[in-house]
Amino acid sequence: MKILVWKSKHGDVMVFARDPEEEARAWLYLFRQMYEMDYYCDLEGDEPEAYAAAKAGDAKGAEWLLQIRNGYEYEVINEEYPVEP
Q1: Nearest of 81, 28, 78 to residue 56 by alpha carbon
Q2: Which pTM value belongs to this model?
Q3: For 74, which DSSP code?
């Protein structure tokens, strides 16, 4: 299990992923959230193939775009693992 934590300017967003399919959906969800806030409008010209793929629902394209921008202000996504007692 993994938790993706987006350090948003509106507060942290945590998305839980129990398996690879959920993780793919989590990356896509985070991409869509950032896209709706116009975080990635500049990537349409810089990374047109990955941008188009992510907009069409490709989780690998979404993850790749999020990873290359990880570290930008308000675009930090940490992968964390819960403690299992």
Answers
A1: 28
A2: 0.86
A3: T
Domain locations in the chain? 2-78
Asked if 20 and 12 touch (Cβ cutoff 8 Å), the reply is: no
- Look-up of token digits 């993780």: 23
- Kindly give, in sequence order, each residue whose CB lies less than 8 Å from that of residue 32, ignoring residues fewer than 6 positions away: 62
Which pLDDT belongs to residue 11?
87
Side-chain-side CA neighbours of residue 71 (13 Å) = 3
Say whether pLDDT at 32 is over 80. Answer: yes
From residue 56, alpha-carbon distances to 16, 33, 50, 53 in Å are 22, 14, 10, 5
Tokens 């930090």 belong to: 76
The H or E element spanning position 11 is: strand 11-17
